[in-house]
Amino acid sequence: MHLPADCAVTNTGALVERRYPEAPHPYRLPFERDRARIIHARAFRRLAGKTQVFTHRYSDHFRSRLTHTMEVAQIARTVAAALGLNETLAESLALVHDIGHPPYGHAGERALDEALREHGLRFDHNLHALRIVEHFESRYAEFRGLNLTLGVREGIIKHSRDYSPVDHPELASYFLDQRPPLEAQLIDLVDEIAYLTADLDDGFEAGILSLGETRAGIRLLEGFYVPMQVKYPEAAEKLVFNEALKRVLNALVDDLIDETRLRAERANADTLEAIRDSPHRLAAFSPAMEELRLEAKRYLYDHLYNAPELAHDHDEAEQVIATLFHAWVANPELLPQSYASQIEEEGAPRVVADYIAGMTDQYILGHYQAWTSRNA
Ligand code: MG
Question: Model's pTM, two decimal places?
Answer without folding.
Answer: 0.93
